[in-house]
Amino acid sequence: xxTMMRQVVLASYAKGSPVAANxxxxxxxxxxxxxxxxxxxxxxxxxxxLIRFALDEVRITGATHxxxxxxxxxxxxxxVVASHHPDYAVGDYVEGxxxxxxxxxxxxxxxxxxxxxxxxxxxxxxxxxxxLGVLGMTGQTAHACMVGIGxxxxxxxxxxxxxxxxxxxxxxxxxxxxxxxxxGIAGGADKCAAVRALGFDDCVDYKAPDFAEQLKAAVPGGIxxxxxxxxxxxxxxxxxxxxxxxxxxxxxxxxxxGVGMEGPGPDHLPGFFRMIMSKGLELRGFGGQFVxxxxxxxxxxxxxxxxxxxxxxxxxxxxxxAAATFCESFIPGNSHIGKVLVKIAAP
Amino acid sequence: xxTMMRQVVLASYAKGSPVAANxxxxxxxxxxxxxxxxxxxxxxxxxxxLIRFALDEVRITGATHxxxxxxxxxxxxxxVVASHHPDYAVGDYVEGxxxxxxxxxxxxxxxxxxxxxxxxxxxxxxxxxxxLGVLGMTGQTAHACMVGIGxxxxxxxxxxxxxxxxxxxxxxxxxxxxxxxxxGIAGGADKCAAVRALGFDDCVDYKAPDFAEQLKAAVPGGIxxxxxxxxxxxxxxxxxxxxxxxxxxxxxxxxxxGVGMEGPGPDHLPGFFRMIMSKGLELRGFGGQFVxxxxxxxxxxxxxxxxxxxxxxxxxxxxxxAAATFCESFIPGNSHIGKVLVKIAAP
Lengths: 347, 347
What we know:
The structure is a homodimer. Chain A is α/β, with parallel strands linked by helices.
């Protein structure tokens, strides 16, 4: 085995949407695990838009903060190749947040300041990569937004933005299982077709010149639950269609990820307050809602195992393609469907 | 009795904060009640900031819409002086939304498209004017925000903006009854002193140059519930101090009442979404939350009767002073404390 590996580091802080020049692939020695540590080999890397927050020069609330030269953080599926810890054996498969690199050495118990130990995976139960998607943070988010926060009920009308995305594709299928009418919003005819193929009742293209009218026609009785993954103009078009006392789980806001706390004027907060108050809307953010996450994953696993939900993925091969694919996620109307994964190595 | 009365009509649509020139006092014949109608004489008039929405030239969601020459709408306490309806007798006291005029003739059952019939009042149970405040819409709003939406619990920290206002003064006292630590935000030292005198644990002056620091020092453990009556810069200063999963009842947003849907830039919505999502905040608007309102008023009546809450009011005399006093409500740091009422006539 070679003594060198590849890793992707921050080359420069991102401004607005991330670009390839913000990243650099470099060679580094494969690390040596210390006492109590394990060495893991990365098999799959998850490309989550949330990583964008770590690339800002100025740190705002909560986000992980990287500096130039730091390895990009990110969720992974790995295999233990050396172990100095009694609970982790060579050959074990684990999910963690070991970053954009081919190998990592770390204390498996204190692997992540937020999520704790490396999670061991049983490859017999489900394909390994589902631990990053439908049976991981993505699935938990979709479940929390539809069930926990959205409280979606039969015969209600649900609208989901970024419906073709990792969270949106799962959230919409949960909505159908709950008996709701589910309308997606996505960019472009191909993506809308893919969304409809997942069982959504309808999908509206936000790039259409008459998007607002199409959306209105797609929800003739108004909207009970709006699962928002984007913010921005799409959300401003949705809000007038919300019913009184509608619920709005805020699960993401990709339109603002490169913006910081303030965007160019005008200020849309006055109208936002007006809608919230006059309609008695309920908004809740997904952050800090991980309580109950294991139960959510258990329910999703049953649905997945019985074929009641499908699991769309977009897979690219090789760490060298991670940065370009990540950047593409921020381009409206990109071709990604579902969870975006990088295959780093075979088990 | 004279055959003429005074009423206040819209002279011109308001732009931004309302000004005296938007209103005109005029003489009109005292109306004659038709079949099934009653003639009521106005005793008290309620000056609610929400009326501002009716004065816009362009109608946005939901608001009552007035045109130049229309009588200004508003909540009133009146006495029946002539009746062609079997359920309403001469001498009865009623609460309704009969507007800024000395007399009104109307069908007492269909008095208000939203709230229905004129509500009969028993002057033995509580002072008549409480039906416009603590035992009326103001009290319902404060109760809904603190109990229904805010779910304020013992030992939690509550911050209330416009703490010296009609809703804020009642909301803060409810918070104290629930065992919470209650911190008000108000404009000026006198108003802050009045807020503290109501039992608030602290009150921070938003006009102070070091307001943000003072507020932070007043809530060392962070904020569990923020009852927002203002929006704008005050709210933007509060949000970084909210705890994870804090509740934020949106009960008003006087900073935006003259703004319409968009204010001058920058756009604060990106930061707002970031706070909502990263902290898992729960925002709910008060609109459409009137369900359970009678139970709220019953509880407030018990508290009022047993002296556990007080009922601050600012009273001006005479319909001719209504417009100037209403306009003053929109000037930050005005001297109003509690519910603002105009005394039109004695019973």
